[in-house]
Amino acid sequence: MVNVLCEPHKVRCRLPLTFGSSALSSPPPSPPPPTADPSKEKLRRLQCHFTWDFEIKDKVDVRHTLGTLALRLEHGPSRNQATYLALKAYLCHLEGSSREALAILREAKEALQRDHPGTFSRQVLVTYGNYAWIYYQLTDYNRVELYLGQIREICRDLSSPDPYSAPIPEIYAQKGWSLLAMGFRNGELAKRCFQKALELQESSEELQEGLAFSTFASWTHSWDEKVKKEGQRLLEGLIRSQPENYEAKIYLANILKEDHGRAVSLADEVVQNSLNPELLRAATKVYRPCSLFRAISTLKTIALHHDHHLLHYDLGIYYMELLDQASREERAQIVEDAIESFRRSLVANPQSIYARLKLAKLYGERTPRYEEEVYLGVMEQLPTASRRCQQAFYLQWGEFLLHKKGQRLEALRAYQACCDIPGDHPMEQKRLEQRLRELAGVFQREGETEHEGAVCSLLRALAEKHLGGRVGEAPS
């Protein structure tokens, strides 16, 4: 696998041979210092997806975001279509499809002309910025200058102090929506964008929605009680002004899970009225704590009409939870239902390592040898998998080696591989710590003190890795 962190090999050019005494008596002249790239300097000053420094972990992250973007484009409000299309173009460019990205940017421009005719010049700056960056990567410098010129003209008309950037609310709003589309882990950053936009213009439906959604997203990653109360207040206000905003209703239902009656009532409204499979999926998670059977029956009905892979994946997860309370006679049928759900998820998303790992466990209910074959097949996918997927694999592989094959040292090696993978993923780190403590206990009972010490060293390394990740985080 190519290490993208390594510097590529540099191609060395030979100096042309010269004849004459001067060539023999003095060393060749030093090459001139590299000249600055004026276009690149201008591009770095733009406000667009190429300069917003999104946290994109790997190719799998790009593919997942493209999938969720497709749902936003199909079911989201028309006012955000251009923003999502411009983001989609950026992600397609990252995947190497620059020509497709340019076609998508044309769609984004048309959407702006249709949905924002009165503020087109202010709204189009992000799209033009993406155009300029893609043409720069394609070395079409004439078009780069064309779009830089158009941006410069708009910024001049806006009396911006920077010829290539304008601190206007439309830009902050587009950045906020883009951050949310890239993942709720960006909730706090998105919230700041909408707050800044609200400082620059009077409140609007779009900005209030963005602030409410980003506050909810921030809470899902901080679990801060103050943020929760703020999110609840904003979402309730949004629903009063937009009674058919089902995204707001499902977010509020998640905040109000302790008020089960109201949460279920909100989820019922979403199931009865929304066509967005992501919102429908979220509604079943509201049912799940008190009625797993209702969550399953609702999700089964929804999955009949949608091929969204996460619907089938969640259905498989619910069946696996049902196994914990099933009788011996019921287990075989539940296992078959779960297997079928994960298979359908894989048909819709063949790259899903998580679905394969769940299938492996289910196959292990019947044939441990087949479970091992699935793991060996997943190993071949690991080089192109996300770091979090790799960690999830080694955790489950180590558990299989320890409990199904009794291979303690091999399990330790799997956990060591999990620890060595970069990235601070709290859920996986917590699971790894639990598995290591379990393994240390096994070595202790067997009197294998040297191997127990190795596990304790790994636990210390894991703690230091987690502490280092926390120290390295940017201040909020």
Automatic annotation (TrEMBL):
UniProt key word Repeat: yes
SUPFAM superfamilies per the UniProt record, alphabetical: TPR-like (SSF48452)
Protein's recorded name: Interferon-induced protein with tetratricopeptide repeats 5-like
A GO cellular component annotation in the UniProt record: cytosol
GO BP: any one term: innate immune response
Keyword Repeat applies: yes
Keywords annotated in UniProt: Immunity, Innate immunity, Repeat, TPR repeat
